[in-house]
Design goal:
The protein is α/β, with parallel strands linked by helices and 263 residues long. The chain has an eight-stranded mixed sheet, sandwiched between helices. Helix 6 packs across helix 7.
């Protein structure tokens, strides 16, 4: 390389600044090679599909439905990679992604699954005569559950924005709880700890089974949506197509039931 990578000491060697730089790059490359080899080895031993999705979508929508897919295709293994960061499918060796984004940000070939309706949700046991919740103004009697990502990229799930939309910017709730993950926020709502802002695809099943209710008629549609993306390297694999077809069918079923649950 034309530069010194080691500095000779008394009975020892130490890395120079250039040596440290090369070591970091080499370690990263070896980790990527190791991960790729492991994925290829698993695919050779059986049919495995890696699916990446946001933590909230994986926890609240995808995982609860996987039993149905497994009953249809028990020969296919599914690996869930729940991550709020957008990954490069080809580079990371991931077959399928569920992307949550604006329509203009959806990659070419992406299939729209459904849009998003934002509405307050809570446990049925939270609404009592002492603490009613029939109008937006009644939120002053309740604790509000906030989802706060460190990067601040979810203002549409902000109580501040929702209350401004309802023309109640000065409303003071009984208290607040804040969470860094959306599934934690919804779990707190299920447990009766307060009122959360639910996003319709992720809370629909919880409302259907009575674990949550949507007590307020006021809601608004977000401009974001969920999209299904398939890696170009995996698109022709039969097991991947079976899985993506199943996801699309589940999404259509959700849309069919949307009006009954969210009226």
């Amino acid at each position: 390389l034309g530069v010194a990578l080691f500095a000779r000491r008394h009975r020892a060697l130490s890395l120079t600044e250039a040596g440290h730089e090369l070591h970091r790059a080499t370690a990263q490359a070896l980790r990527q090679l190791s991960d790729a080899a492991a994925k290829i080895r698993e695919r050779g031993a059986g049919r495995t599909i890696t699916v990446t999705a946001t933590i909230g979508f994986a926890s609240l929508w995808l995982i609860p439905r996987l039993t149905d897919f497994r009953s249809r295709r028990p020969d296919i293994d599914i690996r869930i990679s729940a991550n709020n960061k957008m990954v490069d499918l080809e580079r990371e060796g991931v077959e399928v992604a569920i992307r949550y984004c604006m329509p203009k940000e959806a990659p070419a070939g992406a299939v729209k699954l459904f849009g998003e309706v934002v509405l307050p949700v809570c446990s049925p046991k939270l609404v009592t005569r002492a603490a009613p919740l029939g109008r937006p103004e009644d939120l002053q009697h309740h604790i509000l559950l906030h989802y706060e990502r460190p990067d601040g990229v979810t203002p549409w799930l902000s109580w501040t924005v929702w209350l401004e939309t309802m023309q109640l910017p000065g409303l003071k709730p009984a208290g607040s709880l804040r969470f860094s993950q959306y599934d934690q926020t919804i779990q707190a709502a299920i447990d009766g700890q307060g009122v959360a802002l639910g996003t319709s695809p992720l809370v629909r099943q919880l409302i259907k089974h009575g674990r949550l209710i949507a007590p307020l008629a006021r809601k608004f549609e977000s401009s974001r949506a969920y999209y299904l993306v398939t890696s170009a390297d995996a698109a022709n694999r039969p097991e991947v197509k079976d899985f993506t077809d199943w996801v699309v069918r589940q999404a259509k079923l959700d849309l069919r039931n949307r009006g009954d649950l969210l009226r």
